[in-house]
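ok so for the tutorial part 2 we go from a plain amino acid sequence to predicted structure tokens. step 1 is just haveing the sequence, like this:
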Amino acid sequence: MPPTDLTADLTAIMKERILVLDGAMGTTIRTYGLNEEQARGKRFADSKKDILNNGDILTLTNPEVIGDIHKRFYEAGSDIVETNNFSATSISQSEFFIDDPREHGGRKDPEFFQGVIENPFLRDLAWEINVESARLARHWADQIGSDTGVKRYVAGAIGPLTVSLTNSPDANDPGFRVITFDQVLTAYKEQVRALIEGGSDLLMVETIFDSLNAKAALVAIQEVFEQDGVKMPIIVSAAVGRGGETMISAQTAEALWNAVAHVEPLAIGLNCSLGPDLMKPFLEELSNAATTHISCYPNAGLPNPLTPTGFDMTPDDMNRWLAEFANAGLLNLAGGCCGNTPEHVAAIAQAVRHAAPRPVPTLS
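step 2 — the prediction. this is what the tokens look like for a chain of 364 residues:
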């Protein structure tokens, strides 16, 4: 049975309060101290490439760790938790399981990626990671929701990929692209269907570096909805640089909104790349432009390898900044990206608990 569209329910909640997202899966995974052997488990013990940095694979090899992280974020106050499948497409998983032709004098090109998206192992693996990641988050959403009497939600994460549709990697051939729009579309459609199969409540196209990649993801969602008779809320979230532009395609926050407004997202926002201090002016720009809800889950400052989380800001810092955003009327959803642990999210939840949500402007 297709999932019920929760847009009306979530919209009603966001008229009353600011919803809380989760924090950084990768940052929190590192606190468990897993090594390469543990990450591989028995199933991937013979893999030729290291997979410790393939956090998505832990859904299959260490589900108790991923489940515990979901549980901790929900307990910290998250209303919505993202699935652990940020790079779970055949395209992105190929980085961990397929030889890179560049190491042998070749190059990655559409012919190479056609083989990737047709590879049965990669397709099956991506499907399984997405389905199981959604099921795992769904279990803890239902468990914590039942225990607390506060309904919790699962956001199916759709990441930006490791390739760009916008730019050529070859300065001598600016028209060259390593992959085609249709190839990206195919991989994203498989991911969307798997996230729905696993029980996601909504879909989050996030950490957008390349607006054309995001367009492919949104086309994939729309095609799946039409073909499968499904309707779900969509959140769109971009990662921007210090100038406020998406870092590969260089769209400003306002331009991004104009490019995606037609899909009528439940929310549009900014995440990753910057701490809240540097993100604020671009969040203000987006809030002034968008006629939908605004989400924001920044990094915990800039990277700092000398800190426990790898990022500068403490829970108190995130509390202070997100409280400022909320009190300025900029937020409908708030959370944290890289460097934000469950302790950071608890501080963010406290910061926005009594703040009024941003009123959604209407078209005049």
